[in-house]
Amino acid sequence: MRLHDQFRTGWRNLSRQKLRSGLTIFAIVVGAVSVTVMLSLVTSAKSFLTSSFQKTGEDRRIIVTPTPGLDYRDSTWANWTDGSGVKLTDEVVTKLAAIPGVRHATPLTSFGYFDSVEAGSTLLTLKNTNMVAYEPNGTITRDVAAGRQLQATDDGTGIVISTDVANNLGFRGAYDRAVGSSITLTPRKDMGDQANKKPVILTVVGVITTESAHMEVTLNSARTFMPTFEQCTGGGQNTKPTCTNQNDLDRNGYASVYLDVDSTKHVDAVMIAAQKLKVGAAAGKDEIANQEQAFTIIGAVLGGIGAIALFVAAIGVINTMVMATLERTREIGIMRAIGATKRTIRRLFTVEAGVLGFMGGVLGVAVSFGVAALLNSILNRQLADNGVTARDVISVPAGLALLVIAVTTGIGMLAGRLPARRAANLDPVEALRHE
Amino acid sequence: MALIECTDLTKTYRLGDDVVKALDGVTLTIDAGDFVAIAGPSGSGKSTLANVIGGLDRPDSGQVMVNGMNLATAKDKQLSAYRNSNVGFVFQSFNLQVHETALENVISPLVIGGVGRKKERRLAGLAALEKVGLADRAHHKPTQLSGGQRQRVAIARALVNNPSVVIADEPTGNLDSARGVEVMEELARLNREDGITLIVITHDTGVAERATRVLTIIDGKVSERVGAR
Hints:
The structure holds 2 protein chains of 2 kinds. By secondary structure, chain A is α+β, with helices and mostly antiparallel strands. Chain A has 2 domains: 195 residues, no CATH class; 114 residues, no CATH class. Chain A has 14 helices and 14 strands. The radius of gyration of chain A is 33 Å and the shape is elongated. In chain B, the strands form 2 sheets. In chain B, strands 6-7-8-3-9-10 form a 6-stranded mixed β-sheet, with helices on both faces. The longest helix of chain B is centred in the last third of the chain and has 18 residues. Chain B is built from 7 helices and 10 strands. In chain B, 35% of the residues lie in helices and 30% in strands. By secondary structure, chain B is an alpha/beta fold. In chain B, helix 3 runs parallel beside helix 5 and helix 4 crosses helix 5.
């Protein structure tokens, strides 16, 4: 029997039992959709993460901190130093910048010298707010929701705030309005000579999307706000100690240094060179790898749930095909009498089960595209509300779609094997007598 | 010329505790062009003999030689090919596929055998239906046809591959006498005019009388008398 005749016969037999075939296909669709959507979510999250790291150059970034042992995520938070470990002085920064492959070495420090921030009549306590100062030389790039990133011209005047801070200052959903507005920072009373200083008034130049409460100014700005501390050395019973006034940076050094490496290929070599200076160094690409690994595990778990759904669907296929062989016993006998081989009968039923799987796979993938579009439309609104520029982040990879169709077809054929063999091995004489 | 040679065929069935000898040392030869009636009481082994000759069943021992092939030991593929192209079966209960039209039923051996293209199959099917006088019923489903018409569709299906032998197992059993006579006329004509070897299983003496040879089978043993004609 020719292959296309087998397909035609299989299709015809399936259409004879529309409801039953439809329900069997529906079960496969459910399995296919759960596998496709879950795996698509994971791959989309992975690629969103990777692309956002690439967009900000974080895949080529190394963060140097005074003490070794911090991972990348923690290093990004290390904006405050207590003076332990290697003091990150300008000299160290110069050494780091000289490592082959390093394009820029950008020192960062905290400017957490303030208690609270005010915009209009809204007052916000700066307890858990990350306050970072750096030289805006292009190494650090931010996802901008409104306005722009920090520039050298912002020295002493401009500040960039995160969406979180903007929300708390009453600019939720109106970040454009935050840009250009003045905010007042009130100094802390407990740091050096800070208590004697007047509040600082700055203009918001941009709102950026970061995970948490965050504000940033240029390094030169931070220097002007910086408290000074009286530092005394020597001194005994009869001699007076020598006292000098040191600012925060002189005393503790930078909190961290961001290295912009020219290529991801050179990151490992730069890491090794930096670690020779006894400092801590963490690479963004390792963070990507960690997160990707986490997503892979989540993907395996979610995919496993989908696989269970597909397994149940396969049992549905077996059930349907067993029913079909029972109902069509006499037909099988007739076909055998007019010359069908066991192989032909076996293939007829296998093809039929394969068609069920294929249909389920195709419909399942189609539904998955629909689900992805629906999720995107919901998510796009959320992203827009949070000032994120990315859109349509969930996508069903074409390879996954084809794989799912291939797998459901394969599962169908596999599930059809047992009933098909049963049909093929029927004694034709017995089958013809079957009522 | 010998078309089918059966030698010492045996076949037993177990029915509960009883062992039924359906074939008990059957030896016979069927020549090309023969019209053989196999008669005998029910349960005597008539159908078993026909099924063994038709390659639908295998004997427990003995051999059935057709064109140098022993059906008793042939592989499923060879046996199926033999049924497909050398044998046409006509059954008491017609055994048509009820969801297919008359034409689709008739060409099904061609589809299964992978013979011809769509158009060629259609022409062959219509020709076979024409031969049994049912060309105008080609697109009717079996349920839309009378018993006699259904059996003629079955005959057309048996003929479509130009078989050398047609085996009809009680072909008139489900028909009233008038339709039964028509169907037998049809089969006899095929034997007479087209030289097709015809094996008819029957317990109807009227049918047996048309045959050139009558084999009587009782308790699995065959005896022969030359037919009335």
